[in-house]
Specification:
This protein is α+β, with helices and mostly antiparallel strands and 407 residues long. It contains nine helices and 18 strands. A hairpin with a 5-residue loop joins strand 17 and strand 18. The two termini are 18 Å apart.
């Protein structure tokens, strides 16, 4: 099926330690909401930098900062003391409380769900806890209210426990991710906090499948690879930015609320420097400088799956205490046989970029006459890409494409 689909999954695993309402479109955002969204952008680029710095050179990356942040938000509802402070710092929340963060994400999700009927955005959260764990009612209620979390008590020792959680994952990601928990479940595991996103967007202006052909893609090591590359039959209006050492383009989905933004260094070997340099300020300069003009666009067709354990990245971002059996304080979650701490943060994603656009938008550009050779954009070298919503600036997904065709 030729559509653009993305899906991601984040799960927080908590162990028993070994030691003692939505806003209407157009409403002015509340200060806490602004801080949460600005923090999510800062958190997302820092997370991308951390992941890129430890990933195998040349490996493609695809993460969802929003998914990880929302899963962290559910844990934040149960954190206290230095653990609460560490989560707040990692998420760049300033003085925003867990309740304010939850309310901000509730408003954001409500907004994203109503923006564009041509885009399918399906968020889902769940809490799975070991039968017998004394979970605080307030913790569960906050996560039900703000994250619409489904809550289930399971006998983790039973063989059907892991398949039950994985079945939920498969359903919420429409079969694109079918496993996050490996059986049998460790006897010390007390709780799983799971966030899943499914996104399907149809290009406002489609690529023509019959024009897809092998074209050269310049790799970071200086070599060239032939990859399936999509093209427009005629110039289409796209956002374009040219800055020192970089160029960017932006393609829209549906009614143009959701977009894919692509940023490329002029030198394919400079992709690492580009990733390291991306901050909310530089990102704002790039997306703020995008101007719409007609271009011929050549863009790789690609599909990839990505999986990473985020423990090291999150600890490097200041969350070390949350992973410390002797120091973590998740007393707001409940009481287990021993104190709770985060043992593992697993993140899985899937993305499929193809040619299809919305049928209603296929007429865009009809009647355009070109009197000279039109300007051309070729996405023919490593690039950073983001799937985002423009008005809120929320970044749903961030990726680094080093080599199309690598999974």
């Amino acid at each position: 099926m030729r559509i653009k689909r993305s899906v991601c999954l984040t799960v927080f695993v908590l162990l028993a330690g070994g030691c003692g309402s939505g806003s209407a479109q157009g409403q002015r955002p509340q200060p806490a909401t602004i801080q949460v969204l600005e923090g999510e952008l800062e958190f997302g680029f820092e997370l991308l930098r951390r992941v890129h710095s430890v990933e195998t050179p040349g490996e493609n990356i695809f993460i969802s900062p929003l998914s990880v942040a929302m899963a962290l938000g559910m844990a934040y509802n149960g954190a206290a003391g230095s653990t609460e402070a560490a989560l707040r710092e990692a998420l760049a929340l300033g003085d925003v409380t867990a309740a304010e963060m939850g309310a901000a994400y509730r408003r954001l999700v409500d907004r994203l769900l109503e923006l564009d009927s041509a885009v399918e955005f399906l968020p889902a959260n769940s809490i799975w806890y070991r039968e017998g764990l004394e979970v605080r009612a307030e913790f569960l209620e906050l996560n039900r209210r703000d994250y619409d979390a489904e809550v289930t008590a399971l006998e983790f020792d039973r063989p059907e426990a892991a398949p039950t959680i994985n079945g939920w994952v498969k359903e919420k990601t429409k079969g694109l991710i079918d496993k996050i928990v490996e059986p049998p479940i460790d006897p010390l595991m007390m709780l799983f906090l799971v966030n899943a996103f499914y996104f399907k967007g149809r290009w406002t202006d489609p690529f023509q499948p019959e024009l897809t052909a092998a074209r050269p893609f310049r790799l970071a090591d200086g070599s060239t690879k032939q990859v399936p590359t999509m093209a427009f039959a005629a110039p289409r209006p796209v956002g374009y930015y040219r800055g020192t050492g970089v160029e960017a383009l932006e393609l829209t989905y549906g009614d143009s609320a959701f977009v894919m933004t692509i940023v490329m260094p002029d030198d394919p070997g400079a992709i690492g420097g580009l990733v390291a340099s991306l901050t909310p300020e530089r990102w704002g300069t790039i997306v703020g400088g995008l101007a719409t003009s007609p271009f011929e666009v050549y863009m790789p067709k690609f599909k990839m799956e990505y999986e990473i354990t985020l423990n090291d990245a999150l600890q490097a971002m200041g969350m070390g205490v949350a992973f410390d059996p002797a120091g973590a304080d998740f007393s707001g979650i409940g009481r287990g046989p021993r104190p709770l701490y985060i043992s593992e943060v697993k993140h899985k994603t899937y993305v499929d970029v193809n040619e299809e656009g919305t049928e209603a938008a296929a007429v865009t550009g009809v009647g355009v006459r070109v009197t000279s050779v039109p300007p051309r954009i070729s996405v023919d070298r490593p690039f950073v890409f983001a799937i985002r919503e423009r008005s809120s600036r929320a970044v749903l997904f961030l990726g680094v494409m080093m080599e199309p065709g690598n999974r």
